Amino acid sequence: MDPRRDQATGTASQTSQARPVWSLSAHAGRLITLALAGLIIAVITRRPEFVAVAAPAVLLLAARRPERPERIGVSASPSAMRLSEDEQADLQVAVTGYGDHSVDLMVHPRFAVMPGGGGGGGGGAARGGGPAAGPGDGASSLPFHIARSGRRSLGVLEITLRDRWRLTEGRVMVELPTVDCYPRPAAQQTRVVLSRLPSRLGDHPSRSSGEGMEFTGVREFVPGDRQRRINWPATTRRGRLQLNTFAAERTQNVVIIADASSDVGEPGSTPLDLAFRGSAAAAHAYLAVRDRVGLVVYQRSVRWIAPGLGARHYYRIMDLMLVDPGRAGPLSRAAGITRLPRAALPPGSLILVFSPLLDRRLVETLRDLRERGFSILIIDVLNAESSGRTDGLSSLARRIWRMEQEAIRFSLRELGIPLVRWDGVQSLDEPLAPYTRRVMVSRR
Amino acid sequence: MTAAQPASPGQPTGRPALSRGAARSPSAARSASAATLLAAACVAWSAIPLTAGGVGTALLAAAIACAVLSAARLALGAAPAEPVAFLNPVVRAARTLADLARVLPWAEGMIVAVLVLEALHRSQAWHTGLLGAALLAYLFATHLAETRGRPSVLRPQAPLIAAGLGLLALAVGAAMIPAGTGSTAALIAVLAALAAIVVGGLALPL
C-alpha cells in the first residue's frame, strides 16, 4: 500500500483535494482470521462450539458498508512561515468532506521539528484525532517548535479515516509546508568599537572633534565658531573666549564572518549553531546603533552580503544564513574570502569571526586579512571534542589534536588577532568585555 | 506519541483538538495492558489441560511467542522516523528486530495457535465459548491500543457486539445439547462451511 502524497507546500492555506487510499483495517483482518479459523476448525473437527467462536466475528464483518468519501479536502498551514529557534507556532489542519468517518491525524515531523510545547520533547510523531458527525469541517491545531535554524520542512501529515465499524481505513499523506527558522540571537548589549572610524555619521564618538554630544575639551574661540558653544566659566577664568569641543560621531563598518563549515557535536549546540546565533546577536546589536553590518557565510561556498543599515537589512542577513549550503555561492570556498569585492569587505571595517577554527583555509585567510590591515576579533565557538575510544593511541591522537588547536590560536594571537572563547550559553558580553570597555585600537 | 482525542463518529462535530504528549496516552496504555493480559489468559485457558510433548507443546510455544511479540508490537508503537544509517550495529540490529515485531501479524498467529490448541483436547463447549469471548475482547483491546482510541469509539458497534456475544452464547448452548444422531453434526458442519464461504467473500478486497 502506497498512500498518495499530495503537495501542499508553500500555499499552505489553500485547501487541496486528496483521494484516500482505502483498505481493510488491521482490526478487520484479525476478525477475519478469527472467523475463518473458528469455522475451519469446526468443519474439520466436527465440533459446533467453534462455530460459536466465529459467530460474533462474522456478525461484525457482515456490518461493513462500502460507503466512503472518494475525496477529502485538506489544508495544513503553520501560524507563521518565519520563526526563530524554539519559538512556538501552531500547525492548523483542516479536513473537510470526510462524511461520518472518524479522522485521526498524525504528523511525522522531519529533522529538528519538535511537536508540542516548549521544553523537552522528542522528535517523534505527533497525533491527534477528531470526531466527525455528518458532513462537517474538522479543524485541529498542533503546536510545534523548531530546534535548529534553517529552512525546515515540517514533515508529512498522515490522515486516517475510519468507518463507524472500524473495518475500513482510508489514508492520505500530505506533505507539510517548509518554514524558515532563523537562529535565536544570543544576548549581547555591548559592542566593540574601533579607534579609527570612517567619516560617516553614526553613533560612536570618535577621536576627531565634531558635532557630536560627547564633550572632549576646551579650546580658544576662533571666528566662525558657533557662539552657543562658548564655555563662559572658562572664558571668565582665562580672559579670552573659550569654546567647548565635542567628539565627532561616526559609524563603523562591521563584517561578520560566520564559519559554517563545521557541524560537529550535539545537534542544537554545534559550532555552526553557535556561529549563527552569535552572528545574529552581533548583527542585531550593531544595527541597533546604526552601524553598517555585513555578513560572510563561510561554508561549502562563500556567500556574502555587503554592509548595510536598518531592520530590513537585518532580515537580509538572517535570510543569508538560511540559504541551502548545497547551492553554490558566488565564490567557492577555495577562492576564499580574500577575493571578496571591496563592497563586501570595506577597508577599515571591524571583522568579527565566529568560528571553531577547524578549517585551515579559513585560518590562513584570517592571517591574510590581518596582514592586509583589517581589525579582526575571533570568537571561538569550538565546544566539541573528538570522542570515542579511550585507549592509549586514541588519547595520544586527541592530545596532539588539542595541541594543534592551541598552536593555531597562539599563532593568531601572535599576529595581533584577539581571540575570545564563547560557549553559546553565556551572554556574548562576557567574553567580549575586555574589548567593549574601551575602543579597540586598529593597527595597520 | 500523543494522546488521541475521542474519535467516535457518534459525537457532535465541534473542533477536534490535536493534542500532544511525550509518550502514548493513558487510555492507549490501558488498552495495551488489557490486550496483553487477555492474550495471556487466552493462551493459558486454551492450554488447559496441558498435554506433554508433541504438537501441543509446539503450539503452546508458538502461542506464547505470538502473544509476547504481539504485546511487544503494541509497546513499541510506530517506527521512529530517524534514519538508521549512522547508528551503531547493536542499535541497528535492535531496530531491525523491532521492525520485524511491527511488520508480522503476531495477533493473528496467536488466534490461530490458541484455537488449534483448544481443538487438540476435548473440552466442554462452554470452555471454548469463553475462549471465543476472550479472543473477541483481545481483538478490540488490540485495536484500541493500536489506534490509541478510547473505548468510547466502540459505542456505535456496541449493539452488534452484544448481538454477537448473544449468538455465541446461543451457539454454545446449542453445542452443549447432546446430538442424538450424526445428522445434526453433519448439518452444523454444512452450516459452518457456508459461513466460512461468506466470511471469505467478506475478506475479498473492497
In short:
By secondary structure, chain A is an alpha/beta fold. Chain A has helices spanning 26-45, 49-62, 232-238, 271-288, 311-322, 360-371, 392-414, 429-436; strands at 5-7, 16-18, 21-24, 72-78, 82-84, 89-96, 102-109, 113-115, 126-130, 137-146, 150-153, 155-162, 168-175, 178-182, 201-220, 242-250, 253-259, 292-298, 301-308, 331-332, 350-355, 375-380, 419-421.
Describe the protein's architecture and organization:
The complex is a heterodimer of chains A (about 450) and B (about 210). Chain A has helices spanning about 25-45, 50-60, 230-240, 270-290, 310-320, 360-370, 390-415, 430-435, and strands at about 5, 15-20, 20-25, 70-80, 80-85, 90-95, 100-110, 115, 125-130, 135-145, 150-155, 155-160, 170-175, 180, 200-220, 240-250, 255-260, 290-300, 300-310, 330, 350-355, 375-380, 420. The relative contact order of chain A is 0.11. In chain A, about 25% of the residues lie in helices and about 35% in strands. With about 450 residues, chain A is of the alpha/beta class. Chain B is an all-alpha fold and about 210 residues long. Chain B has helices spanning about 25-45, 55-75, 90-105, 105-120, 125-145, 160-175, 180-205. In chain B, helix 1 packs antiparallel against helix 2 (about 55-75). The radius of gyration of chain B is 20 Å and the shape is globular. The two termini of chain B are about 30 Å apart. Classes of the chains: A alpha/beta (about 450), B mainly alpha (about 210). At the A-B interface, strand 3, helix 1, helix 2, strand 7 and strand 9 of A face helix 4, helix 5, helix 6 and helix 7 of B.
Instruction: Give the helix/strand class of chain B.
Output: mainly alpha
Class by helix and strand content of chain A?
alpha/beta
The portion of residues assigned to helices of chain A is 25-40%
Straight-line N-to-C gap of chain B: 31 Å
Share of helix of chain B, binned: 55-70%
The string of secondary-structure elements of chain B, in order, is HHHHHHH
| Count of beta strands of chain A | 23
The main pleated sheet of chain A reads as:
7 strands, mixed
Strand order of the largest sheet of chain A: 20-19-18-17-21-22-23
What is the C-alpha radius of gyration of chain B, as a whole number of Å? 20 Å
Strand content range of chain A: 25-35%
Strand content of chain B: under 5%
- The gross shape of chain A turns out to be elongated
Shape estimate of chain B: globular
Distance between the termini of chain A: 69 Å
